[in-house]
Q: What sequence folds into this?
């Protein structure tokens, strides 16, 4: 029996719809395993701006510091597109990442047996199995390094610098090797070492880190080759490790193989293992509040939080079994519906999945 405090931040759009269902899954886990989950409900994003004039309050940061994990929905929407950059809803999520140094982004991609017909991959590829974890750096590289505008040889220019320190590469690499130890013990490091100085530093540093994990196999792969392999032979991957920009692209490619972003979770964690867990589908404002969003990605985010953040592996497995069972029983929200299935609402899918959480 353990006690946990979870910051629950639904955010905007369908984030509210799906996180409400995910909390029910935690309650059920608490009942089955004797744990207590205390929730700190906070506003972050456009909803916070509407209420307080900022995308996140300082008080929310302080409260999150007292929590064991953050369960997040989504932030943003066209309603707030005209706001100044620093007041945009997404800046609330950005500040959470910065304040807690959430440098490693974990994006699993798995094809559920009962959803394989939704995947764009051919059956002969799916039958080999698709279950990979893409780990990308979240705080360095081209998105966060020097950038600006200038006048050059041909007039106006814009530039963004791809820059990594050895420290940044080493810390995210260690996360990848640690996670691989709990999976199939293979890390595929993705870079562009043949064209980029930063790529050579990345490859050399990952190779050095690998010496501390002799039980985990390491292979290196160029990013263009990795993109082809995800589409043609994704079963070869276990843990993929890469930079911020390469990971941004490859994780979306890997994600689309599952057939629906409504099934995909994500985590951002720091060196101490504290993390923020969320579905990746965004706010989808066109269907917000309509009761038709798929909550299973938020259930999968809870599974990641239990397994990676709280080290409750048996409890995490119970969530995963429930997701598989509700799909096997034919229940579907609109995004994954096929003829012969039973179409259900967000709330119904949540309740049906919670019913299937068992020891």
A:
């Amino acid at each position: 029996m353990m006690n946990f405090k979870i910051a629950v931040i639904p955010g905007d759009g369908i984030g509210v719809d799906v996180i409400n269902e995910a909390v029910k899954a935690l309650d059920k886990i608490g009942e089955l395993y004797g744990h207590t989950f205390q929730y700190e409900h906070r506003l972050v994003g456009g909803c916070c701006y509407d209420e307080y004039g900022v995308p996140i309050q300082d008080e929310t940061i302080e409260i999150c510091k007292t929590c064991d994990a953050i369960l997040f929905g989504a932030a943003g929407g066209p309603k707030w597109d005209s706001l100044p950059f620093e007041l945009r809803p997404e800046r609330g999520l950005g500040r959470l990442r910065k304040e807690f140094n959430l440098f490693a982004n974990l994006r699993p991609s798995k094809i559920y047996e009962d959803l394989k017909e939704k995947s764009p991959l051919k059956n002969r590829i799916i039958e080999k199995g698709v279950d990979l974890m893409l780990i990308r750096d979240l705080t360095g590289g081209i998105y966060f390094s020097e950038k600006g505008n200038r006048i050059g040889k041909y007039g106006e220019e814009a530039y963004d610098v791809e820059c990594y320190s050895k420290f940044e590469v080493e810390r995210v690499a260690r996360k990848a090797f640690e996670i691989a130890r709990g999976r199939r013990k293979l890390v595929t490091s993705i870079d562009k070492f043949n064209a980029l100085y930063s790529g050579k530093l990345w490859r050399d540093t990952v190779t050095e880190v690998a010496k501390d994990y002799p039980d985990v196999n390491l292979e290196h792969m160029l990013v263009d080759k990795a993109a082809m392999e995800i589409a043609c032979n994704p079963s070869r991957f276990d843990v993929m490790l890469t930079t911020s920009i390469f990971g941004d692209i490859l994780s979306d490619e890997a994600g689309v193989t599952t057939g629906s972003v409504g099934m995909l979770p994500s985590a951002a964690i720091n060196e101490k293992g504290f993390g923020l867990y969320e579905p990746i589908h965004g706010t989808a404002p066109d269907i917000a509040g309509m009761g038709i969003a798929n909550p299973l990605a938020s259930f999968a985010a809870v599974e990641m939080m239990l397994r990676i953040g709280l080290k409750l592996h048996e409890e995490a497995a119970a969530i995963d079994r429930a997701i598989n069972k509700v799909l096997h029983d034919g229940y579907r929200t609109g995004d994954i519906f096929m003829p012969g299935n039973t179409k259900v609402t967000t709330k119904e899918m949540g309740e049906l999945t919670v019913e299937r959480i068992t020891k």
Notes: The mean pLDDT is 96. The radius of gyration is 20 Å. Residues 14-33 form the longest helix (20 residues).
